Amino acid sequence: MVRVTAPAQLTVRDVTVRFAGLTALDGVSFTVEPGSVHAVIGPNGAGKSTTFNVLSGVCRAASGSVRLGGTELTGLAPHRIAALGVARTFQNLALPPYATVADTLMLGRHRLTRAGFLAAGLRLPSAAREARAHRERVREIAEFIGLEGELDRPASALPYGQQKLVELGRALCTEPQVLLLDEPVAGMTADERRRTAAVVAGVRDGLGISIVLVEHDMGVVMRLADAVTVLDFGRGIADGSPAEVQNDPAVVQAYLGAPQ
Ligand SMILES: Nc1ncnc2c1ncn2[C@@H]1O[C@H](COP(=O)(O)OP(=O)(O)OP(=O)(O)O)[C@@H](O)[C@H]1O
Ligand SMILES: [Mg+2]
């Protein structure tokens, strides 16, 4: 499960996003260091999901830049950004119904499939070898997320917390450099939260993948994050270590002033 290459730095510079009259992001900047957990927090409507939508190419920035290493990501289609190694999970579950855990994880391997459907259809040996390698990797990742015993079960039949882990696993199956997690522990029991936090820490420490984490659970943020960016009304109001931002008066004010 060890990565061969270190992930590149992800730099967000002066990103502005507007929706018909509303400025959802207003000159947001932050840098995600390779192999770190970088949390993006803020009250409801602060622009956290919009930030993810820009990073993954779902949403176009009116201005500003997002770079992965030397590569400019702004303006690229979502599948191009995914192919460059930026994977995401969604705030709400987005698992295909009826598919088994193994099939769902295999969906994440598709962008890596070289032999293609033609070779697979013709049953060429290269395609068979590749399919075996993909199945092996799916098994490794299932072990990594603690679901190797559930590979043949329909993902939608699993408890909610495990379904969220399947989604995380599917993102890992794309072999990303950067993983965007939108509220990974939302709606989970305390036990599921602990387990998911341990998996996320493992993704950083064991796989060396950079993680951008949007999460309302401050306990999880403070325990996992190496750095935190705080947004309020689309603006970056603080940046620093968890301890630094926790004691920042502007952050305290943003949270106290907002209905949670
Ligand atoms: N597609 C859209 N069209 C119009 N306005 C939008 C759209 N997406 C988001 N917004 C608005 O942009 C602002 C930022 O929304 P965003 O979803 O990024 O917030 P958030 O920080 O993720 O909030 P939450 O914590 O509730 O998930 C909000 O005012 C929201 O209503
Ligand atoms: Mg959101």
Automatic annotation (TrEMBL):
It holds the Pfam family BCA_ABC_TP_C. The keyword ATP-binding applies. InterPro entries: AAA+_ATPase, ABC_AA/LPS_Transport, ABC_transporter-like_ATP-bd, BCA_ABC_TP_C, P-loop_NTPase. CDD domains: ABC_Mj1267_LivG_branched. Residues 10-258 form the ABC transporter domain. One of its GO terms (molecular function) is ATP binding. Gene3D superfamilies: P-loop containing nucleotide triphosphate hydrolases. Keywords: ATP-binding, Nucleotide-binding, Transport. This is ABC transporter ATP-binding protein. It comes from Streptomyces drozdowiczii.
